[in-house]
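1st attempt posting a full record on here, be nice pls
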Amino acid sequence: MPACLKTILVRTGIAMAENAVCSAVKSGGMAAQIRRQRWSDLGVHNYIKIFIIGGLFCYLYHNEIRNILYKWCTDSSWSHGFLIPLFSLYFINQRKDEILNLDTKPNYLGLIFLICGIIFYPLNEVHFRLGYLQPLGMIGTLGAIILFLGGWPLVRYVWLPIVFLIFAVPLPDRYYVSLTMPLRIFSAKAAVIFLGLVNDLEATANGVVIDVIYKGHKFEPPLNVAEACSGMRLLMAFLALGVAMAYLHYRPLWQRIILLASTMPIAILCNIIRVTISGFIYVLISPKYAEGIYHDMLGLLMLPLAFGIYGFIAWFMSSLFVSETEVVAEDIIFRRDKA
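the predicted structure (as tokens):
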């Protein structure tokens, strides 16, 4: 074979090899650039891991999970607890693109926290006996699992959904009563002020009991601001939803803090309105319309009222404070020169 032909064949083979390598590199680069877009893209093996770890977690904390579910079903003050895990899942789904394409790796600090959480659970059950720490420890253990398996990059996107679960944990009865009692007394005193505006109506507050005298007739039994009227139920539910709305709505951090801080006075205000309206119904219409199902329906109406006030505050801040980027964008004038 002539030397020149050999040279041509060798050069052709090298060129073909180079083209094959470049094609392989390009195809590998394209494969690396493919982004996961759906939860199903995680693969069966990842879901098997999640199922196994989730099963072990539920087995370890089955008593706490059962107690929380029982409280949600039997105590109307904590019935909003069913919505909290759904909101947490929704938060996670909002960051789906970032979470699915994270370069995760185990963080062994999470393993240390996980071991501490597992050891603390039976230790607290036998020795410390602080019941409220059991469900909080369960949430902490869940966070430790996330840190151990996914590292800090994953924790960055899921820390709020995990912390948000605290709103689903019922407070111990002694703490709940100690918090509701001042709210009930405050609502009774505020309601007395508004009831006193009616002619021939005298109202005095004795703790959580409102004594009413209308046109010389003393109402018996007196109006009692029950535990359900403390506003604690509305406060806990509205605070949880306020955190969710502040997280989901894009706005400056200081506005989110103001919105979050406004949830407590809004809930207290709505509860005062509820107690006052109940007092007017009790005196001017009939006592039977101030209790039972009518009383519960009035309480439900306070939630849209609270959201209305919350929405007004959000709208007011958005209208009052305009970001510099919006101002600059409005000042830009496009000119077209004539030919």
